[in-house]
Amino acid sequence: MSELHPVIAKVTERIVARSAKRRRAYLDLIERGREAGTNRDQLSCGNLAHGFAASGEDKPAIRTGQAMNIGIVTAYNDMLSAHQPYGRYPEQIKIAAREVGATAQVAGGVPAMCDGVTQGQSGMELSLFSRDTIALSTAVALSHAMFEGVALLGICDKIVPGLLMGALRFGHLPTILIPAGPMPSGLANKEKVRIRQLYAEGKVGRDELLESESASYHGAGTCTFYGTANSNQMMMEVMGLHMPCASFVNPGTKLRSELTRAATHRLTSIGWDGDDYRPLGHCVDEKAIVNAIIGLMATGGSTNHAIHLPAIARAAGISIDWTDFAEISDVVPLLARVYPNGSGDVNHFHAAGGMSFIIRELLDNGLLHRDILTVARGDLTDYGKEPVLEDEALQWRDVPASRDENMLRPVSNPFSADGGMRLLAGNLGRCVMKVSAVDPALWTIEAPAAVFHTQDDVLRAFKAGELERDVVVVVRFQGPKANGMPELHKLTPALGVLQDRGFKVALVTDGRMSGASGKVPAAIHLSPEALGGGAIAKLRDGDLVRVCAQQGVIEALVDAAEWDARDMPPAPPAPYDTGRELFALFRHHSDLAEQGASPLLAAMETEL
Ligand SMILES: O=C(O)[C@H](O)[C@@H](O)[C@H](O)[C@H](O)COP(=O)(O)O
Ligand code: SF4
């Protein structure tokens, strides 16, 4: 058992010191919440009567107030295949709660956007701020103050970050996230990508493409690529906010329903009336946040968490930045290759040993904080085991070795000595690049820029044959203040075709990519963004741009005097349709990507 790695210890101490004032204010807030804030003791008879009026068989128990009443915040809808199973969860949770003398009520629902449905559409420009809308909706749900525990039902991209941002403001409440699991594997991801590239080249038609996509996304459960949703699941494990290694058990199985039941029972054991009080605000501390960064690096997780994790951390009074990510990336080895970082999907990853193996390996090698307050009985050690049913009973067993070293490896033999995400900085600003899915021969690209203001313009240029060369494709005015910072994942097939034709291709943008984006080097989240004067706005067609993940550099190779003398181009018109105009308030108040790109947090912090 190794000592904690000195760099991880150093980064953690730096975060603790940087966060001290706000974290103290946060801990005071949740202390007040426990003593005199949002809980049932403060409600009048009228409040209570309204609260349990429709609670049926649970009414007597809720009325007496002698046992935990669990507030369920659910992100159920039929748009996200990952969330579709949640339709039946409230009833399951209510039954499980009654088994231990507790009760449960749906405190409220939150919206959930499927980034797969909106990818490449106007709706994608609502995606990032749907996270903050979820945070607000979670606060509305929990503000009923009828609860002594919280069950959060959410899996996908912006949903887990939004649920946590909202629930953390009620951090005096013990809280557990209950996952629903991945859909069974469908069409292999590599075949999906092959058909997409053929379609981008005009070599197959829409019917064949739809057939391929439907064979890939074919049922209930989370999509099986390692994108932002499944990176959320990984983070909840290394932060200890799920039942141990519950993430990647398929929906509709006995093991899945037993894990939901166990989560409900466990939640009733960590309330303030017992002797094992585990409030969310104490579970999500600096060490848990550092564990999440480590997990991203060790598994090649989604770049979106370079934005969401700072926002989640700030909701708990903790401040992190991309330098923290970069220093942790330098010392955390890449232990998993899950599509798009490899060929297997999360089902194969789980079968190979999954999170249980990853966590035990990292713990044994001093690469995770073990001593965090989890929702399980112990510390993070509990998460180095996988859940199984033995004689119909839920058990956790060791995973002594990877069952498939093509996708899951020990620290002694990693895929890469350092993590899957890099910080790049230079005269264009600061940005991140996911390298775990990029051929190392392509980690440095130096080529003339082709500058665009929309991804559709890029695709038009591609179809017109204007990009058949070494090129740095620049797509700007895609930042949070400009248009809500959409994912530009629709560019992946076309840029992949150019790369496969042997051209040196990179993407540079103040926007985002999907966590499922892969093989094309993409320098993303460039801050400051173009709108408001970020340097990316100065770039012109033909400028030589250097993107280098080895040295962590991104720069325009333009004469300094000329560069300084350049004007900024006029900004494109503000987005206006698909409800985007309703989010203007959020765009106007958004923070930098590195701070979480949230319109909610700065205002909250100024009131401290
Ligand atoms: O960050 C992510 O993981 C993506 O937003 C993902 O949730 C989205 O659904 C992708 O668009 C899926 O990939 P395809 O678009 O390739 O199906
Ligand atoms: S993983 Fe992405 S595409 Fe799949 S259900 Fe979740 S949001 Fe939608």
TrEMBL record:
Location of the Dihydroxy-acid/6-phosphogluconate dehydratase N-terminal domain: 69-380
GO function terms (MF aspect): phosphogluconate dehydratase activity
Entry EC number(s): 4.2.1.12
Key word Lyase present: yes
Keywords per UniProt: 4Fe-4S, Carbohydrate metabolism, Gluconate utilization, Iron, Iron-sulfur, Lyase, Metal-binding
Gene3D superfamilies linked to this entry: IlvD/EDD C-terminal domain-like
InterPro entries, A to Z: 6-phosphgluc_deHydtase, Dihydro-acid_dehy_C, DiOHA_6PGluconate_deHydtase_CS, ILV_EDD_C, ILV_EDD_N, IlvD/EDD_N
Cofactor note: Binds 1 [4Fe-4S] cluster.
Family of this protein: Belongs to the IlvD/Edd family.
Protein name: Phosphogluconate dehydratase
Species name: Sphingobium xenophagum
Gene behind the chain: edd
